Amino acid sequence: MSSSAENPTLTAEITKPSTEIATETAQSAKKITLKTSDDQIFEVEESVAMEFATVKSFFEDAPSSTDTVPLPNVPAKPFSQVIEFCKEQIKFKANPDETEKKRSNSEFVKEKTNEDLVEMIPVANYLEIKDLLDVLNQAVADRIQNRSVEYVRSFFGIDNDFTSEEEALLREEHAWAFEDVDED
Amino acid sequence: MASPEEEEEESLDQLPGTVLGTIISKLDVASICSVASTCKTFNACASHILTFIPSFHLLDIAPSIDLLRPLLPPNPYLKSLKLDCARLDDSAINVFVRDSLHQLYLHNCANFSGKLISEIGGKCADLR
């Protein structure tokens, strides 16, 4: 019974070596465990986690560490979107294609809400993911260019801390800049 | 410099001051002025940016000298300047002419004298 059960496995190994190797690589790919500020656990492939300069230097200081890496400034929601971006990015490391990378980056930001972008910025900044930060900064600049003061306030969730006199003075001084802004 | 930056981070909860600077520096001049009116943090950041942006292009409007002066603080990195000069005269030279300039486009400069034009050439040795 035991030999007949083993045999099919052996046959499979011989006849489909490529599948076996692929499975083995996937199984042995090291995972890094990361804990977000809201106590969510993420298991991320090492190659993806090494895109986070902050995490990378953590493992450079403690190479054999198997501990969970705490990310005290990183909430789960923007973090999962950051992982999504980095997974795409590492594909381009193996196979550089600037045109395709640009298309992929613009696709990534296009489907994100204003809130998503604003929440991802501090995460990208904290994890020191320069490519993502560049993409986010440009995307945010594009979205607030030529928009009204009110639009920009709600975009960033800014509280207006000017007195009404101060604001009136600024609006008068910059009146020309508010002409022809895009509708909110 | 450290303390005002820390204050910026606090007041905006999460947006780091340096990142905010990078975002605002990508905007055009009109949008920089517009975001400067949103809150004190953005206002300070926008004023700071005007002291190091490499290009200042303002052709949608013809600014008066009073409007232009606060927008062009000392800026040793200013390389490219484009201006509509319909409302400016020879007295504006001290506001916009910098020896750091490599590129200067002046539109509608009928109010400028020939003497002024040659003076610009003398002051901006690197002009191409």
From TrEMBL, chain A:
Q: Which residues are the signal sequence here?
A: none
Q: Where is the SKP1 component dimerisation domain?
A: 130-177
| Entry-linked Pfam families | Skp1, Skp1_POZ
Name a single GO biological process. jasmonic acid mediated signaling pathway
Q: In which pathway does it act?
A: Protein modification; protein ubiquitination
Region Disordered: start and end of each range? 1-22
Q: Which residues form the SKP1 component POZ domain?
A: 30-88
**Assembly behavior:** Part of a SCF (SKP1-cullin-F-box) protein ligase complex.
Q: Domain of life, per the record?
A: Eukaryota
Q: What is this protein called?
A: SKP1-like protein
Report keywords, A-Z.
Ubl conjugation pathway
Task: Read off the lineage from the record.
Answer: Eukaryota, Viridiplantae, Streptophyta, Embryophyta, Tracheophyta
Q: Supply the PANTHER family for this chain.
A: SKP1
Q: Please name the InterPro entries in this protein's record.
A: SKP1 (IPR016897), SKP1-like (IPR001232), SKP1-like_dim_sf (IPR036296), SKP1/BTB/POZ_sf (IPR011333), Skp1_comp_dimer (IPR016072), Skp1_comp_POZ (IPR016073)
Q: Which family does it belong to?
A: Belongs to the SKP1 family.
Record function comment? Involved in ubiquitination and subsequent proteasomal degradation of target proteins. Together with CUL1, RBX1 and a F-box protein, it forms a SCF E3 ubiquitin ligase complex. The functional specificity of this complex depends on the type of F-box protein. In the SCF complex, it serves as an adapter that links the F-box protein to CUL1.
UniProtKB/TrEMBL annotation, chain B:
Q: Report the source organism.
A: Salix koriyanagi
Q: Which protein are we looking at?
A: F-box domain-containing protein
Q: Name one Pfam family in it.
A: DUF7885
Q: Where is the F-box/LRR-repeat protein 15-like leucin rich repeat domain?
A: 58-128
F-box domain location? 12-48
